[in-house]
Amino acid sequence: MRPPLTQPLLEQLRQICGAANVLTHDDPATDLSPWEQDWRKRVRGLALAVVRPGDTAQVAAVVKACAAANTPIVPQGGNTGLVVGGVPNGSGTQIVLSMTRMNTVRAIDPANLTITVEAGCVLQNLQTAAEQAGFLFPLSLGAEGSCTIGGNLGTNAGGTQVVRYGNTRELCLGLEVVTAQGEVWHGLSGLRKDNTGYDLRNLMIGSEGTLGIITAATMKLYPQPASQLTAWAAVPSMEAAVQLLGLAHHRLGPSLTGFEVMGQFALSLVDKHFPQLRVPLWRETPWCVLLENSDSESESHARGQFEALLEAALGQGCVTDAVVAENLTQAKGLWHIRESITMAQATEGLNIKHDISIPVSRIPDFVVETDALLAQNFPGVRLVDFGHLGDGNLHYNVQAPEGADGPTFLREFEDKVNTLVFDQVTKFDGSISAEHGVGELKVHKLPHYKDPTALAMMRAVKQALDPHNLLNPGRVLG
Ligand code: FAD
Ligand code: MLT
Ligand code: ZN
Question: What is the pTM of this model?
Fold first, then answer.
């Protein structure tokens, strides 16, 4: 047998992971599109191979082999990312490192309130493992049935519980990472305090696979609430929605675990494409709000608090009508409507997605002003607005005018629409990416909208940790 470093790369990868776990286009029966095509169908890449390691030692060996062969690596979890960050480019020279075989729960420490899982663990399976142990793992998003905790950490995912529990970063205590040199950083600490130097964990989280490959993580667990109630409220304006948020914070305190806003056009798309979901109240109001109250006492306590909140809101005029789910099935139905907006909008056709954050207090003015500018500059465009208002995070999406061809509209106007919206975001002290990341889609915009000193420090970090640009090149920093 030839020594490993002189063997052709694919043969080495087969020896490391097993032949069945190195997929290439050489086998005509193998369809690589699930790994090469991004979720939104914006980009179809071409992989040299899809490699599926089974443990951390294999990941390290794959990285060493790829480094020696100067072959870039694109880490991938569930491939649900929305910014083209987890698929290969079109060159046919990059390998996709699919982490989904590494999916076991390694340990649960009930007294320390932690769970340690491998990176390829699907988020829903992690939630279930926590629940079976009597705890809550609060990260929750529409893609939870297929996204992985490694991808959630890679993107610092947000979702619908951030208002109470924070982003994925806030939920993580420790990481195991394979570096660009193929070394293993054993950082799976379950510590809540550790001031021994630079915070490498938080540097890795949100780095979108460009600084290291996350192979496992120790995540925080929480007590399960005694009761969880969901309400759906009609609000007359975005200003009223922000007023309701203030009231909900004041009345519910830490029991407020979800606060989502949904615009009328976004809900009309759910009604159009999924009429069986029976969207409430949307026809009579420009905005609806979904609120969740997680109570540590009892259901009757939660219901009493919720009803008092809604009564006060009706009295102040910031809510015009509302329903409180009677039971868990109804509550799940309301959440399902909210989570179906992404699919309804994808079914309607290609659109220009914006995942922005703005200080909550400034969102009403931002929306009024930016809606008007878009209508003036791109007559007929339709706005699919919804998002995590409790976190100041809007999905402020722009759909082509009725009857227009989506792809043609995007080709002609995407950059101009992006510029208009991002200039407005900057004017209102916001960020052009709240939770989805930069990926490839926003990479050319970052130099214009990010502080130049911050960008220079980011480039210095990348150069120090991955000097040969092996890990996910072309993403985040271009
Ligand atoms: P992938 O798409 O496979 O990868 C995403 C990025 O992470 C890539 O840059 C990749 O290289 C990197 N990566 C993946 N695994 C690793 C690893 N082990 N180590 C290092 N880097 C890695 N996002 C939100 O934030 N909030 C939402 O509410 C939300 N809702 C969604 C709803 C739908 C219907 C869909 C389709 C997507 C939604 N997303 C949301 C976006 C997406 O689900 C998240 O970005 C998620 O965190 C991606 O996880 P993944 O496993 O699919 O990662
Ligand atoms: C959501 O909040 O539903 C997601 O971030 C997905 C999206 O923006 O479409
Ligand atoms: Zn979101």
Answer: 0.97
